[in-house]
Design goal:
Elements: H1 5-17, H2 20-24, E1 27-35, E2 38-40, H3 43-56, E3 61-70, E4 73-83, E5 88-89, E6 95-96, E7 102-114, E8 117-125, H4 127-134
Parallel strand pairs: 1-8
Antiparallel strand pairs: 1-2, 3-4, 4-7, 5-6, 7-8
Length: 147
C-alpha cells in the first residue's frame, strides 16, 4: 500500500506553485471535489475550480496545520492565505471585485486516495469568514431580500 499522504502533499505543492496541470494530475480521472461553493466531477473541472481561486488570489498559499490519516482517508486542517487581486465569485452568484485585501482562511479537507491518486476531495471553509476579509457583500439582490 502506498502512502496516502503523498498525493495530498503533491496537491498542496502544485497549488502553491499555481500549477494547474500538476494539480489536476494528483486526482484520478473520475475524481469528485465537493466544496461550499461548487462541485467538480473530473480533473478538468477540479483544475478549473482551483484556477478560479488562484485568479482571485494570485499569491495564494496553502499551509497545512495538521493531517490525520485513517487507512486511505486523510483529514487535513490548513490555512489559505493570499491577497484579493481578482474577481471572486461570492455565495449567491455575485462577483466581488478585487480589493487588495489580505486573507487568512481556516479550512479543512477530507480526501480519499486510491492508487496514489485522490478520488474524493471534500473541502470545508467558512464562506462568511472569507467574504468578511475581502469586504464582499453577502447581501441579497434587492428583489430577493427577506420579508
Amino acid at each position: 500500500m502506498s502512502d496516502p499522504r503523498r498525493p495530498l502533499d503533491r496537491l498542496r505543492r502544485a497549488f502553491n506553485r499555481h500549477d494547474l496541470g500538476g494539480l489536476a494530475d494528483t486526482f484520478s480521472r473520475g475524481a469528485v471535489l465537493v466544496a461550499p461553493d461548487g462541485v467538480g466531477q473530473d480533473r478538468d473541472e477540479i483544475a478549473s475550480y482551483y484556477g478560479a481561486f488562484i485568479e482571485a488570489f494570485p499569491d495564494s498559499r496553502c499551509t497545512v496545520q495538521s493531517l490525520t490519516v485513517l487507512g486511505d482517508t486523510l483529514v487535513a486542517e490548513y490555512t489559505l492565505s493570499g491577497t484579493h487581486q481578482g474577481a471572486y465569485l461570492m455565495p449567491g452568484g455575485g462577483l466581488a471585485p478585487a480589493t487588495g485585501r489580505p486573507i487568512l482562511v481556516r479550512a479543512c479537507s477530507v480526501s480519499t486516495v486510491e492508487d496514489d491518486l485522490i478520488v474524493s476531495h471534500r473541502i470545508y471553509y467558512d464562506q462568511l469568514e472569507l467574504g468578511a476579509q475581502i469586504g464582499g457583500s453577502l447581501c441579497f439582490e434587492e428583489d430577493e431580500s427577506p420579508g
